[in-house]
Amino acid sequence: MTTMGLIETPPPGSDDVEEAVARYGSEMYGLTLAITANVHDAEDAYQTAWSDALRSWTKIRDVSKRRAWLASIAARSAMHTRRRRATSNRLHVPFSEATALMTVMHWDAELGTAISQLSPRQRAVITLHFGHGFTLDEVGTILNCRGGTVRSHLGRALANLRVVMGDERD
Amino acid sequence: MSVTEIDEERLRRGLRGLLTVEPPVIDDSRSRGTPWVGGLAIAVATVVVLAGVLTTTLLLRNRATVGVTPPSRPTLIATPEVTPEPTPIPSAMPTPFGTPAPAPWLPAVGPPCTVSELEVRVGKGFSNLSNGIMYLIFTDKGRARCALRGTPIVQFLDARGRVLASPRIVDVSSGYVPTLPNSGVGLLPLSSEGAYPGTGPEGGMRGQASLPLQYYADGCNNSIAAIRIRVAAGTLTVPLAVSGGGGGCQTTVVFINPFQPAEYEP
Lengths: 170, 266
Known about the structure:
Number of strands of chain A: 0
Strand content of chain B: 15-25%
Largest sheet of chain A: none
Low-confidence stretches of chain A: 1-14
Radius of gyration of chain A: 16 Å
Number of domains of chain A: 1
Mean pLDDT of chain B: 69
Oligomer: heterodimer
Shape of chain A: globular
Structural class of chain B: alpha+beta
CATH class of chain A: Mainly Alpha
Radius of gyration of chain B: 24 Å
CATH topology of chain A: Butyryl-CoA Dehydrogenase, subunit A, domain 3
Mean pLDDT of chain A: 81
Shape of chain B: globular
CATH superfamily of chain A: PhyR, sigma-like (SL) domain
Strand content of chain A: under 5%
CATH architecture of chain A: Up-down Bundle
Order of helices and strands of chain B: HHHHEEEEEEEEEEE
Low-confidence stretches of chain B: 31-38, 63-98, 243-248
Distance between the termini of chain B: 51 Å
Number of helices of chain B: 4
Number of strands of chain B: 11
Helix content of chain B: 10-25%
Helix content of chain A: 55-70%
Order of helices and strands of chain A: HHHHHHHH
Structural class of chain A: mainly alpha
């Protein structure tokens, strides 16, 4: 079975919350980190995402779609947190560099810095496509937008990365 | 302003690394939608219970210290004083009295380890119920310290050296056997020959790194001949035979964890 990035049916007995947390927790957290671009908002979005997921846990009957379903919830939660942050940033001092995406991505801080300068939607698209390995159509389904829109976001994201990383080398 | 081609492999590697960052523990009360009043009540109750336990422990400890009629049998409360909880300091590094204890795990000091200075071998492995784990052990054969960070890109090869599509390899921060969250593992220039204290000849030792591969022994595919691991400046290949529950069976998916200190035993 090839459905939404999950090639095989999970083994028997894995169809429970703890297994899902162990299996997809890091991916969900990574996605929230990429979209919010800071640790505090990512943790908040991650908690909210699991809260939302557990509330409707039984609605997803096809276990093979769980990975994409959880990614969708995490992305939505992170976007919401990011929007809320954009409002509250007018009132509060932004977070320190120690919690920024570039610090989290210590293995490639230059890339982390460049990704931080993309829009949340662009970060979501490149993370789901290059990180999770979803196809662009699957990314569209996860982000609830059309494939053409996803391709547009991806194109702009790559163009922006070229410019930003080119600037840093100058 | 120069325009640089984006290396998609770099983007993929960087973002895959991001997806292996250890997530925070899920706040259970929030997940269940517990009202804050309920949460507060639980917190107050916890504090009260802890205070009670602490008071009782202190009272009993004082009685034992001043020598007032010691209990005829060792009690549960007295036991920790007789056999203190072992600290995670490796047994391979005896600490002379009066000198500071070594750090539990080596810090990730130095540049990323390169292929030319690394040696990899298959370490110990075991399976239990339908789960199995195998460790690859990395030794720094160079002259200087180096570090291994994150989760490397791993591929399975068949006997002809072709990359296999199955088993699929999935990056996860932990698994059936828990892993030690870390921001990198420090390696010391070592010889991999000789004794491996504490963990037997097949295990790892302080100064080495291990790479856990976890899998469900639920399928068979015997075509794997080797595993290729990508590290800085190239790849390492090691002959491999993952044993599953069926004796030689390979699984359909393998979960790869971040590098670990080789002496760490969950």
